[in-house]
Every structure is written in structure tokens, then in C-alpha cells.
Amino acid sequence: MPLTQINTIALNAELTKKALEKVGNPNVLVNLVSRRVRQLNSGGGALSRPLIADVGNLGVADIALMEIIEEKMGWEMPELVELTRPVGSKKRKKH
Questions:
Q1: Which run of H or of E encompasses 17?
Q2: What one-character DSSP code corresponds to residue 56?
Q3: Single pTM value for the model
């Protein structure tokens, strides 16, 4: 494996780790990165431009991760609501 490919894999893993620390939930991180990658790949318009200044030779997924790390993107986590089962005194009818 070429050295540049090894560096890219290590960089991507480190970016993912740092972005996960910001977001807190891996499922939310996947959704954020996926949506941002689609926006960056769409071409044309303001949403398809990177929000960070120095993209260098980063791929779109790495750009999305960097935007999360540098807090260039915002997101809201919904409040967790504990679900409870209704407790009733109704008994089932026997057939």
C-alpha cells in the first residue's frame, strides 16, 4: 500500500474520531456526513462550496468531517423521550 494511501486512511480515521467527539452519536454523524457529501457533490450554488478555507487534496467526506470538527455546520439533537407502556386493569376476553 502506498504511503499516501496509508496517510489518507489514518487522517480519515482521526477526523472521524474528532467529529464523533463533537456529535456524540455515530448514527447522527453518518447522517450529517452523508447529507453534506451529497450537497458538496451536487455542484452549483452556495451549498456545494466547502465551508472551510484549506481543502487541499481532501475528499468530500473529509471536507464534511472537517466542517463538523471546525463547527462550520450546525445540527440539533432531539430531546430523548422515555417511552412507557400503558398499564391498565383491562383483562382480555376469553373466547
A1: helix 3-23
A2: T
A3: 0.70
